Amino acid sequence: MKTLRTPFLHQLATAGVGALLLSAVGLPAAAQTTAPVQPPAGTVPAATPSGPYSLQRAVDVALQNNLTVRQQQLTTENTNVVLRQSRAALLPTANAAASQSWNYGTNVDPLTFQFQNQTTRANNFSLSSQVTLFSGFQLRNTIKRNELDYQAGLSDIEKSRNDIALNVASSFLQLVLAQEIVRANEARVNTSQQQVSRAQKLLKAGSVAESNVLDSQAQLASDELNVITAQNQVAFYRLQLAQLLNLPSATGFEIEVPNLPDPDDVVMLTADPDGTYQTAQGIMPEVKAADLRVQSALRTVELARGAYYPRLTFGGSIFSGYSSARIGRKLTGDSTVVPSGFIYQLTPTGAQVVPGLFSGIKQPRFETLSEGFTSQVKNNLGKQLSFNLSIPILNGLQARTNVQRSEIGVKQNELRAEQTRLQLRQTIQQAYADAIAAQRRYAAAKRQTEALTTAYRNAEIRFNNGLLNGTDFNIAKNNLYGAESSMIQAKYEFIFRRKVLDFYEGRGIRL
């Protein structure tokens, strides 16, 4: 069977699962009716596959249907998009623009900059580009920070998957335990029925008092009640596991019961929590995520300090335009004779000066027309190159404040990482102590069960011979049942604690 690795084990190892295992075993315990602690919801539940579920199959279905894992995956994908955008910020920017406008009445021509009183249509076209040459290494520090955030997000996905896997493994083990309790209680009911039948026969033979029969019947009723209570526990844990798998219904949902060894068949644990801790902190995704976020916070400090440095950019642009008010002269091909000399002519009144037509000069004729769109765009073409330097001097101490806040953020992330490691160490130490205690408790409960079994058989012989009343016999019987329940409880608690340690040592969870 594949192994299950989950950091969420340490959250349930000290309280959650242990309490559930304890409440699932005791005979007088009330049936649990509350909803699961973290049932994953789903918009489109998967159909219930046929056949019993193994642990690995249940985990695979839960991971496929769980929305918490999907949400974490989307969050990480968003972080990856931010990372790609920060890398693209190193590229030059390029933008094109175009506009068309109409001016009425008195206005300034956008190209000739002359006042005029006419309707004018104008077009403007531009193409510009800019690249950052230096910005205090802020762009590169942003990329490095976002890379760390993305890696931390991947660790968060692994942690979410491990959390779901542990929830499934815990519910799976609880269901196995509940089913074993049902089988034990059904065996007790069968024994009690045989005892009632035997007591009734002895009563008819006059060997026992009627009170013995009544006590046996009362015990049978109590055992039947315990069976109903245990069956309700099975139904509850089956529903809980089906909800964790996001199945539409628990009807027909069954599991494969694994063959679990008894604790006394396992070599006694040797306490080495420090070695397990050293192994665990190197493989736990929550520890890796905490360390990555410390490094990300350090990059944030460098990013904030980049605001102290000047910012240098280089840009270029090309632009042109058109105005309907712009005019030009166009050669028509005709010519005009212009007088260029004078002659004297005698008249009765005297000599007069008249133009000399014979000495005229021909000049070309032009028309005043609006300049065409294409020629204007070509003639109005302009280009520009520029370097822009921005030197921060005083901006309300914003850069200094941002640096101080980012330095505080580093300390906060360092404390979170330290807290994660501390919780991991304490959980491993507690898991070792609980596993050793459960193994010892199982051995003691087994010896107690063997002793009470012998006492019960002796009490049964005395009861059948009329030498022991029904009350004392039921006390001996219930003492045996209590010892058996304690042994079952210790068995499953040891199994869980041992799997916790296997997980932290990198061996995974196998049932």
From TrEMBL:
Gene3D superfamilies: Outer membrane efflux proteins (OEP). It comes from the Bacteria. Residues 1-31 form the signal peptide. SUPFAM superfamilies: Outer membrane efflux proteins (OEP) (SSF56954). This is Outer membrane protein. Belongs to the outer membrane factor (OMF) (TC 1.B.17) family. Its main location: membrane. It comes from Hymenobacter chitinivorans DSM 11115. It is found in: Cell outer membrane. GO terms for molecular function: efflux transmembrane transporter activity; porin activity. GO terms for cellular component: cell outer membrane; efflux pump complex.
